[in-house]
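Dirigent protein (Medicago truncatula), 180 aa
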Amino acid sequence: MVNPLNLTSSSFFFIFTLIILYVAYTFQKLEPNQTNMLFYIHDHFTGENTSAVTVAGINGPNFNIQHFGTVAIIDDPVTEGPAMDSTLLGSAQGVYVNSQLDSKAVYMVFSVIFTSGKYIGSTLEMQGYSLYTTKEREFGIVSGTGYFRFVKGYAVMETQSVDLATLRTTFKLNVTIKHY
């Protein structure tokens, strides 16, 4: 004899499944927004407007970011254009570690903190390997806040200008991100 409860349960389950499938396939899916940005980071280890300092290294008090094992802390200005007097967008704050034995590359982890413009109060978190001798280096965008919640993407960094004697560099960052 067929138990009516089983028939009712089976019918309910079947109808419930159909409703769930209908809802899942008819509602519009949320597509991410893509944002492309171009900005400049001014990395100055010496002179006026110093924004980066070495804090540890294996060469005692004579450490510099060009030596293996050196750690530097940055709070670099981020501008709209390559000149220091260009519109200030915020700052890049983080850490560089010279992590290659031949001292030709650094591992960089930093936040771009927007203090003006359209993205004020938002941040982008970047990390990656920077080999000095390459024209372009790619960094992963691993996180963000504010306007950039749930972000993912990448940044292509180029050395815009460099003075190795004074360790003053301007980096151009072309950023492509997807976010909701």
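The chain has one domain: 31-179. Residues 68 and 102 are 7 Å apart (CA to CA). ok done for today
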